[in-house]
Amino acid sequence: MRQLMRFNVNGVIYEEEIDHRRTLLEVLRENFGLLGTHKGCDEGQCGACTVLIDGKAVNSCLILAASVQGKKITTIEGLAQGEKLHPIQEAFVEAGAIQCGFCTPGTIMITKAFLDKNPNPTEEEAKRAISGNLCRCTGYFQIIDAVMKAAEKMRKVV
Amino acid sequence: MKEELSVVGKGVPKVDAVLKATGKAVYGADFSLPGMLYGKVLRSTVPHAKILNIDTSKALKLPGVRAVITGRDFPWGLKYGFTAITRDQTPLAQDKVRYIGDEVAAVAAIEEDIAEEALDLIKVDYEELPAVFDPFEAMKEGAPQLHDHVKNNISASQHLAFGDVGKGFRESDHVREDEFTTQAIKHGFLEPHASVGLWDPTGKATLWGNKQSPYIVYRKLAMAFGLPPSKVRVIQTYVGAGFGSARSDPFALDFCALMLSKKTGKPVKFVYTMEDVLVMGEMRHPFYLRTKTGMTKDGYIKAIQVYAVADGGAYSTIGPVSIALPAFFIDIPYRIPNVKYDGYRVFTNKGFCGSLRGHCIAQLRWALGQHLDMMCNDLGLDIAEVSIKNALHPGDQTPSGYRITSCAFTECVEEAVEASGWKEKKGKLPPYHGIGMGTSSFITGVKLSGHNSASCVVKMNEDGTASVLTGATDIGQGSSTIVSQIVAEVLGLPMEDVIINSGVDTDFTPIDPGTYGSRVSFYSGNAAKIAAEDAKRQLAEVAAKVMKISPEEIIFKDRMVFPGSKTDKGWKIDALIRYAQHSMGKESKSIIGRGSYDSGVDFIDFKAGKGNISPTYTFATDVVEIEVDPETGKITILNAVGAHDIGKALNPILCAGQLDGAWVQAEGQLLFEELKRDKKDGHVLNPSFMDYKMPTSMDIPLKNKHIFVESIDPDGPFGAKEVGEGASVAIFPAFGNAVFDAIGVRITDLPITPEKVLKAIREKRQGK
Predict the structure, then answer these.
(1) Of the listed ranges B27-41, B330-344, B559-573, the one predicted with least confidence
(2) Which terminus of chain B faces fewer neighbouring Cβ atoms within 10 Å, N or C?
(3) Is some CB atom of chain A closer than 8 A to the CB atom of B733?
(4) Which residues constitute the domain of residue B617?
């Protein structure tokens, strides 16, 4: 069944008739063309589809789109300002945290949620924060470096 | 004088990192065309059966369905494969299905949901045949036969002997024989396969897909469609990682996207689910290895004999290579005068196996590296000292004919010993606390057969930048960055002035074999260097005319072209390029450099095993220190050190990423990963990341130290050798040896689960 739905994604209002069975991941990708949120396992195990709902990280493949109307949704496309990368993105680029890059948007989003709450983490806390996001390429070491580097950059910005 | 490098050797960010960090890189499933249909594939529900009939009439009547195809829609009997003797695959099953998951039909519909629904309406009549899942059962007389043309299900075999192992064992003071086994694992890339096919009215079949070796796909598509390759075009999207032939080969979705497009006149898109990926081929070969080693009492290895049986699954793919590779790796990294190998790859009614990072070498080293430790323990020798004693050295030629050029294996062992505190720890750690060492050597560009050369084009642009067209496929390992660094270095440009094609397009990029066999940095890197040097030479000739000195004296640096050391008389490189383009009368031209590279190493003779399998070799030593909880069997990694002779670290950040990633991928196979199967029908029991467990960040040690040992290869670009694959091998025996050191029991079958460790500890306590 289709119904008119209204979403706030990265500050942009989207209003469309959408099948109520669709997940947030499907709607972001197929209806709004926000392809930076990736579909990996499609069952909440890999974290490649991580987005923020009111600042909290969720697997968008496990959320029905209909349930997050009226909430503030942030995707990877909402982080950079024009050509100015978000400090987390800068840190991922510099630290070598990106290889194939398929997990990257999800891992950056989980990092955003984490550092917003914990701006001065230990390496062990960083390691735990990204533990729901699989990466087969990097072995995680350079991602952890990137999270620590991002924290440092963000502390300087504030 | 040591050459001063300004871009090569620096940890510059990847050229595609910003696109990937902002979600703007277009991966397989992100690519779309207007008017596109969506495809779904139907898989076999039985492990072995004749297909009697497929009724697609109901599916075709479902509103929204545009076409349904089966094996009959493809050229009947036309099979594709790696070589003439291994062509045993068809796009969809024709006469038979051979495993649960084999593809039998496909649908194109206006929506993905409708295509999915239509699959339920296809009725397949099977005549079930007896099936076989164990390779040893499959080799027996009278076992169910998977392929009519292959006797006893022997998909491929390899036999090899150098020297005289009998003599070698007689000359040894100690000989022992042991068995080792390994399990099936998946590549574990996060992006499922995705393709869009368009068969246009000119008869051109174009496929967009997340492919690791697009030219392999191009050739096999042409083969299965019976088309000349020029009628096929493969355009690579960004690739969500690869790790082996599961990304290099075409699969049902690729053939079906094109065939359904031909039928409907529309582009057709397939996106597999992760369940598809985990059920289908390819995966890593499970191995049975029986190894016999002979050694003198002072630690010289006199002979090694290996008997191997690999479970190949239902089809050949690159099976002959898979079963040959262990044979070719026995006599590196040690000097071993007598070698014998007998290996068999066997068909079973399961998903087929292919290459995966460290292709069949990780399995071999799991056995040989532990066996060496067992021999050393028996004789009271230190494995580090024995490794140095038997080590290959520059200038060596192995009995099989491998020419060892750059080689810092001894230094690798020494560095690992030093950094791990080996001497202070080995044999001196408290109970349930262990340290283990493993070693390996790897090829840099496998030279087995077929196409090996690489080419590159460097076009100089009028604003002073350089556009690079490479045939190398970047699947995340960073070849686009490495190739750009090499071009930038040669031309005296900063990284940001180099533009590189973001993917392979078989119509336009130089034909390249693909991303496999640890060949890309070496072959494509050399081709890029030669192409950049060609562009530089052409520009130097122009500069020489203008500056009235000889071209050899021209220096390219910091976007400038100088007459020798006169740094005040230079031209800006963009001005020189424009001068060449505009102002040289009839000689005016765009500067386009070309480069091709092949190592010139002869193909290996498969029958005799003689030859040089690779232009050069990498070497590694891994040490791992662990703690075992005797109550639970859980292993905690305390410290890990790896010393790797990679020739030259072209980009230390990328190289470290390769070493890290290889290590953790291996850790997964060592400790818990396993594709589990039902014993009765062979179906995959854990086709989901919920149950197929890969390492997360919580599984890695806090300290994992990598040491680059730079031997500067004489033939590698700026001295480089491979870095991504060999690094996943030495850790296998290192881990097994550390477990033995900790608990005093040898675990010989992978993975080393807490259950196995606990059982071993209990049995030891009970004195079994």
Answers:
(1) B559-573
(2) N
(3) no
(4) 285-392+402-447+604-765
Dihedral of the CA atoms B494, B497, B502, B504 (nearest 10)?
Answer: -90
* Interatomic CA distance for residues B622 and B602, integer angstroms: 31
CB within 8 Å: B688 and A43: yes
Residues of B in contact with A124 (CB under 8 A): 702
Residue with tokens 């390769």: B658
Residues B552 and B622 in one domain: no
- For residues A15 and A72, state if they share a domain: yes
Per the structure, the complete domain to which residue A68 belongs is given by 2-77
Place of tokens 């082996």: B244
Which tokens sit at A58?
A: 């969720």
B251 found inside a domain? yes
Tokens found for residue A53: 């709902």
Would you state the structure tokens that stand for residue B82, as one six-digit string? Answer: 């790696």
Is A110 within a domain? yes
Nearest to A131 among B241, B274, B697 (CB): B697
- Other Cβ atoms within 10 Å of B95 Cβ, number: 11
Q: For residue B282, say if its preceding peptide bond is cis, omega within 30 degrees of 0.
A: yes
- Helix (H) or strand (E) run with residue A143 in it: helix A141-157
CATH of the domain at B758: 3.30.365.10
CATH code of the domain containing A110: 1.10.150.120
Hey, what are B671's tokens?
Answer: 């400790």
pLDDT category at B52 given cuts 50, 70, 90 is very high
Residue B586 resides in a domain:
yes
Residue ranges of B 184-213 with Cβ closer than 8 A to chain A: 187-192
Domain count of the fold of chain B? 3
Instruction: Decide if B476 contacts B190 (C-beta within 8 A).
Output: no
Contact A78, A11 (CB under 8 A): yes
A20: in domain = yes
Count CA atoms within 13 Å of residue B186 on its CB side: 28
CA distance B390 to B680: 46
Contacts 24+ apart (CB under 8 A), B563-571: B571/B543, B571/B546, B571/B547
Do A92 and A67 have their domain in common? no
One-letter amino acid identity for B85? I
Tens-digit pLDDT profile for residues B73-127:
999 888 998 888 899 999 999 999 999 999 999 999 999 999 999 999 999 999 9
What is the pLDDT, as a whole number, of residue B601? 84
> Taking CA B265 as the corner, what is the angle to CA B263 and CA B267, rounded to the nearest 5 degrees?
105
Element (H, E) at B289: strand B287-295
Q: Which of A42, A58, A77 is the last residue of a domain?
A: A77
Asked if the Cβ–Cβ distance from B190 to A92 is below 8 Å, we say no
Contact call for residues B409 and B441 (beta carbons, < 8 A)? yes
Choose from A100, A109, A143 for mutation: most chain B CBs within 10 A: A100
Q: What is the pTM of this model?
A: 0.97
Per-residue pLDDT of B624-639, as tens digits, reads: 999 999 999 999 999 9
Tell me the percentage of chain B whose pLDDT exceeds 70.
99
Q: Three-state DSSP class for B618? A: strand
Q: Are B381 and B247 part of one and the same domain?
A: no
pLDDT tens for B127-152 read 999 999 999 999 999 999 999 989 99
A82, part of any domain: no
Verify whether the Cβ–Cβ distance B696 to A132 is below 8 Å.
Answer: yes
**Inter-chain CB proximity A142 and B188 less than 8 Å:** no
C-beta atoms of A99 and B241 within 8 A: yes
Q: Are residues B499 and B438 in the same domain?
A: no
